[in-house]
Amino acid sequence: MTYQSKREPRAKQREALDLLKGHDAFALLMAMRTGKTKVVLDDWGKLAASGSVSGLLVIAPAGVYRTWETAIREDLGVAATVYTWVSGGKSRVKAKASLAAFTQASGPRILLMNVEALSSVAEARELTLTFLAADPTMTVIDESVIIKNPSSKRTKFIVDKLAPLSKYRRILSGLPTPRSPLDLYTQFAFLNPNIIGIRSFWAFKNRYAILKPIMVGGRMIRIVDGYRDTEQLQRLIAPHSFRCRLEDCYDLPASDYSIRGGALTDEQRRIYSSLKQFATASLANEKHITATIVITQILRLHQVLCGIVTDEEGNTHHIPEHRTAELLSLLDDYDGKAIVWCSYDANIRHVAAALEKEYGAGSVARFWGGNATTREEEEIQFKTNPACRFMVATASAGGRGRTWHGANLVIYYSNTYDLDHRSQSEERVKAVGKTTQVAYVDLVARETIDEKIINVLRSKIDMAATITGDAWREWLV
Q1: What angle do CA 40, 45, 50 make, to 5 degrees?
Q2: What CA–CA distance (Å, rounded) separates 137 from 47?
């Protein structure tokens, strides 16, 4: 069997392929649209053609893993039987026949699996184990930060069960440390524990994190208060990784970042002031403050700025706000396609309704957890229908693996405190050969928690890693 890639790799892709030779474990730390999927498929295709492997297992987030189907058709020069796992519903019933054919097929086989299924679906776990046991296989973790949590069920299963059965292992990520250097541990433990040379996450944490002892509930615990020797950590992973950014490959137009401030309504100002005063007083009375408590208080303040309050029964109520009017005012001077990112489900519904009222039915597509059954169709409308000008989405659902480069304006109606959400969502509009400048606009309420969140995200610092110990005062006071 011979292998011939359907498309010639570009310079940076050839560089990555050369580095992969002789490595059974390797990290492709390549940004979106630099071609890391093609690198993996070319690498696997050559190994399959030489007889070194015959199976490829790709594990990726639910919003990403099916994009590999297109990449396989476009790039792979080896005839392979492909099976895409589908969880639940009628589609799962229809998939049983193709699963039977897949398990009985001879020759190269590719299994595409969403990582969420490996958290709790026994059949999905069994399928991956059976697949790896049957053939020499390469296992790829796409968006490998999905296994950064060492205590999650899916991470333990992938690292402890799947990695030992995989002849070759690859991780793909544009941003491998969205929260802290500690995110690296399980990603590289999956590749090969010897790369970092520490056999437990707790030993790794003790080595590279500065831990501060505090008393909580009558017992002593240690919290992260900074990091150390990160340069050494970088030196350890460098021989086993390849770093590539989009700007390393192409001459991209500079992006424009701006902030549009808006005043609070009287109702927002009253609630925000009261909540801030109560939260600060409450925290000040606590002997020991944890990041979780502080983030909860910040979340409540942030929701008020977005026109949302939640009562004691957990019901969501809208309060008067100017942010939506500011959004519409901004769009008055723009006639192209735009993406509007929202943090909360209530904002998705509210913003989509406001845009449709202003621009007409069919002008808005949505991509969030609440429209999981229709969002793929809505995405197609956004990408192909000129009348569908706006994509309103949450970064948790649409921030990964989507290609929305038809838009040149990105508006953050609100941000989460997750750096990974921000950095990934910014990438959706970037594309090879794009010559138009992208404008990123953050809607904020001046002199509130909004500005502090933006400053942290813009500085590439994650809030959860920043707020430790007494540092909570600079966020609330």
Answers
A1: 130
A2: 10
6-10-16-19 Cα dihedral, nearest 10 degrees: 90
Long-range contacts of 291-295 (CB under 8 A, 24+ apart): 291/223, 291/464, 291/467, 291/468, 294/467, 294/472, 294/475, 294/476, 295/417, 295/463, 295/464, 295/467
Mean pLDDT per 10-residue section of the chain, whose length is 477 residues: 76 92 93 85 94 96 82 85 78 68 91 92 94 96 92 96 98 82 94 95 93 82 86 91 80 80 87 78 50 72 89 80 91 88 95 95 95 94 96 91 91 86 88 81 88 75 46 47
Q: Rounded to two decimals, what is the model's pTM?
A: 0.69
Residue 409's H or E segment, with its range, is strand 407-412
Residue 157's region, left for phi above 0, alpha for psi from -120 to 50, else beta, is: alpha
Give the count of beta carbons closer than 10 Å to the beta carbon of residue 227: 14
Which residues, 6 or more positions from 353, have their beta carbon under 8 angstroms from its beta carbon? none
Report the greatest alpha carbon distance in the chain.
Answer: 72
Domains of the chain: 11-247 (3.40.50.10810), 256-476 (3.40.50.300)
